[in-house]
Structures are given as C-alpha cells and as structure tokens.
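hey so u asked for the seq, here:
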Amino acid sequence: MPSPPRKIYAGAKLKRLRRDRQLTQAAMAAELDVSPSYLNLMERNQRPITVQVLIRLTDAYGINPRDFMEGQSEHSASEMEQILADPFFRDAAVPRAEVQDAAENSPALLAAMARLFRAYTAAREASEAGAGADGERGGPVLVENPLDRIRAIQQEARNHFPELEEAAETCAAELTLIAGDLFLALCDHLRARHGIRVRVLPVEVMGDRLRWYDHHRRQLMISELVELPGRTFQAAYQLALSQFSDVLNGIAARHSAGQELTQRLLRITLANYFAGALMMPYGRFLEAAELAGYDVEMLSARFGASFEQVAHRLTTLARPTARGVPFFLIRVDIAGNVSKRFSSSRFPFANTGGTCPLWNIHAAFAEPDRILTQVIELPDGTQWFSIARTVRRSRTPFGAIEPRFAIGLGCEIKYAKRLVYAKRLDFNALDATAIGINCRLCERPACPQRSAPPAMRPLAADETLRSISPFTFKEV
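ran it, structure tokens below
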C-alpha cells in the first residue's frame, strides 16, 4: 500500500514570499483562490500547503515547488545546534525543539545570528593568535571571516548560479573546437577576442606558481606541471574574468555589498564556477550524467575533466527545470582537515573541525585511485550513499612534497538507485555505518574512535568503569 503524500508545512516561506511581493493576505489569498483566513492558517503552520495551492503559487509567482518541499530549516537548525555546542553557550541549554521552531519560523534571524557567531569566532581566533588587535579599542575587530561568508553564500544558493550557467552554455556553443580540443579552442578565443596569449612554461620559469596572468603583457602563463584538465580550467577561468566580469561583479555585489575582500574572493569563486560550467555545459553534462549513472570517471573521460572537477560539477545541478541528483562534496587531506565542502542537498557539514573517522573517505588514502562506496547513517537517522577516492592536483617534481587529498561525494539514499555505484546495493537490507558529523557534535555512546567528548553532554567520571570509548558522558 503506497504511503500517503507528505504534508508540506512551510508557513515561514509562504509569509516571506508574500512580504517580498508586498502583498496583503487578502491580495495573495485572492490570487491563490483561498480565503484570507485559510492563508493565515497556512502561514502559521496550522494548515499544510496543499498540492493545488503549490501549483497556484508556481503559476502566480514563478516559484520552484521544491524550494517549499525541501526547505532550509533543517540546515539552519543543524548549523544553530553546532553554534550552541560551542563552550561559550555551555550554560544556555536551549532545547532542540526551540531551535527547530526558530529554524522554521525565523530563518533570517538564525542566519544573522550565524554570521555574528562566525565574526565572533574569527575575532576570538585572532585574539588567541595575538593578531588583529585594534589599537584604539584594545581588542580584535569583530569581522566575519570572508571564507565563512562565501561558504554561507554558496549554501544559500545551493551551489547553483543561473547567470553563470547561462553565460557558460552560450559561450560553449560559440567556441569552435580545434580537433575536439577545448583547451586549444579557449587559447584561440582568448587570443582572437581579448588579445591574451596562453603559454605553458617550464617549472624553472614558473617556480611554485601553477598559474600567473601578466596584465601588462596580456599573457596567461600555466606551469607544465598542470595536467590538461587543469590547463583547460585555467584558460576558462581567465575567460570568465576577461569576458564576463560584469556578471561576476553583479553577483558578488549582490551577495557581499560593502565587503571588499569578500567580494574579491567571491569573484574568484564565481570565476572557478564558470570554468567548470564551461568545460561541462549544463544541458549536455546532465544528460550524459543520467545516461552514465553518474559514473564520475566516464564523465571525466567524455568531458576532458579531472575526477575532482566532475565531482564538483555534480554538486551544481540544481536548475529548477532540469535537476540532477543533489550531491554533496567534501575534500579532506590525510590529516582529516577539510579544504572543500559543497552541497546542493541538506547534508549537515561541520563548520569547524574534521569529519567522522568511521567515514571511509579516510580509508581512501590506503587504496589510492580506487573508488570506495559506503552507506552512512547520521545521528538524526537519515541515510546517505557516498563514494570516496583519492585525487591529485598536479604533477609533483621528484623530492617535492606531494599534496594528498580524498574526495567524498554523496547523496541521500533515496537517490542512490540512479547511481552506477549502487547497482549491487540491497536497498531492502542496507548495512549502514553509523557516523557523526564530528566528535564534538556526535552523541553516539561507546564509539571506539571518539577523540573528544560531545559538546552538548556533561562528562562523567567513573573510577570503576572503562568503556571502549575514552570519554563517557551523561545522557540527558
């Protein structure tokens, strides 16, 4: 017997949509063909938003129904719980139910609180490091870390920027491929249209620089250590800066007005996004991904991109009229430090610290270039399917330290059937590995890999007991 359709309670979003359009309840109710009193009940989550109302909302205001069905409240609640786990809030004891209520009804307020906390954290770190002091006020300046702000912008956009997608698809259609080689086509285009010469130079000339653009000589210089996918990416990145600067500036200004450093870093992020979109144009890439069962290595061969470039591109397929599987991506080094995290899903990344050691992304370093698969279950009961594989950024001369990274790419278990990697998976008897977000945010008892006690649980000290976990804590 099929399960009944899930009821949609999105009152805060409905109210925000009405206020953004500067409509009264009576005016919106008339457009949706419901009574003002019924609209009021929906805004207060006392009535669900029916399918009929959702269709009328789409027709009247051009909204994406999925935005109402898959809200940001879970992400907001997860982020706020991470903030409340900080020792600064140890005595606050905010119940989870209140956090969830705030996430559903006041998401903008929680976003503002998150920005304030990120600024506080940055100031605290600067103070501990003895840097960033303000001579007049005698303390660190409370400024949000621009990298944290950019991550928040990407999360808010679900790592999808329609203006860049449109520009990249148009540009890709105009490029004349030379023997099917996109890198050569980009070099020719940059020289013909922008007077920019692309040169691949020996490491003796480039030193530790993989890429350098000389404004005066109008030359883009790329190290010979960069492999062909990387060279293509760097040429496409330069094209974004040279030809689509207005688009980059418009998006950056809209998301980070008045923050010069954040705007400049965001421009770099957006130019990188454009480069990936140009190498793998949305329509062709999504079609190929669906046909290939999201086989990353096959897509890598077809589009002349690296494993990491393809994995990153898969997290951006959130076009309302043509969505791919909503993936998340995380990149870690051999010490477990996180250097990249992107998501078009609701996967709850930790804002600080590493990841759970039970996640097999860490095991990938023991089996280089092999794709590992795993079903993981988070403390909230949600299950996810992930793959992991090591990657390298560029060639490394003999004797130099070679950077080592592993990529984790995953999606909710309900999408896994569309992936070639899950063909042998028994969905009726899943063997899921229970993991946490990280040790400080995980409350699973008796974990042999625990490296720190959970921040939201009081420690217990029992001289008569030794558990498999070095930390025991009280259940609340």
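Residues 132-137 have pLDDT under 50 and may be disordered. The longest strand covers residues 383-391.
lmk if thats what u needed
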